[in-house]
From TrEMBL:
<dbReference type="Pfam" id="PF01399">
    <property type="entry name" value="PCI"/>
</dbReference>
<keyword id="KW-0396">Initiation factor</keyword>
<protein>
    <recommendedName>
        <fullName>PCI domain-containing protein</fullName>
    </recommendedName>
</protein>
<dbReference type="InterPro" id="IPR000717">
    <property type="entry name" value="PCI_dom"/>
</dbReference>
<keyword id="KW-0963">Cytoplasm</keyword>
<dbReference type="GO" id="GO:0005852">
    <property type="term" value="C:eukaryotic translation initiation factor 3 complex"/>
</dbReference>
<keyword id="KW-0648">Protein biosynthesis</keyword>
<feature type="domain" description="PCI">
    <location>
        <begin position="1"/>
        <end position="87"/>
    </location>
</feature>
<dbReference type="GO" id="GO:0003743">
    <property type="term" value="F:translation initiation factor activity"/>
</dbReference>
<dbReference type="InterPro" id="IPR036390">
    <property type="entry name" value="WH_DNA-bd_sf"/>
</dbReference>
<dbReference type="InterPro" id="IPR016650">
    <property type="entry name" value="eIF3e"/>
</dbReference>
<dbReference type="Pfam" id="PF21357">
    <property type="entry name" value="EIF3E_C"/>
</dbReference>
Length: 128
């Protein structure tokens, strides 16, 4: 669907291949973050590629190490095994608390609105 829209767009038509490659990369990156064992045929279908094209594209993706993990392809089972090293504990804490200040401020504002009090939340700067 997106390929047709981009191909028919006056301004984006010439960037169709680049758009599709980047879209495939984003989809495969999100899919690989969620799953540790990936069926090549399923991922190829999601990337709108034939099985052979998908296999070549995935091999090139792993070869370029754009996936950021140790990935191995088992061609007998037609699956990709992704092994990620565990995150350090401080990194896990940072990821869990990243939006905590914003969520707390939003919760306080929602509580103020339900009580009928005027909304006066102090500005919070999120540290990264």
């Amino acid at each position: 669907k997106a390929e047709t829209i981009v191909a028919n767009d006056f301004f984006l038509g010439e960037f169709r291949e680049e758009f599709m490659d980047n879209a495939r990369y984003l989809i495969s990156e999100a899919y690989c973050r969620i799953h540790q064992r990936i069926d090549i045929a399923d991922l190829s279908e999601r990337l709108n590629l034939s099985r052979d094209e998908g296999e070549k594209w995935i091999v090139n993706l792993i070869r370029e190490t754009r996936m950021g993990a140790d990935a191995k392809i088992d061609l007998e089972k037609n699956v990709i095994e992704i092994h990620r090293p565990p995150l350090p504990i401080y990194q896990t804490v940072i990821e869990k608390t990243r939006g905590l200040a914003f969520r707390t401020q939003a919760l306080g504002a929602a509580m103020s609105r339900t009580q009928g009090a005027p909304e006066a939340a102090p500005a919070v700067v999120e540290a990264q």
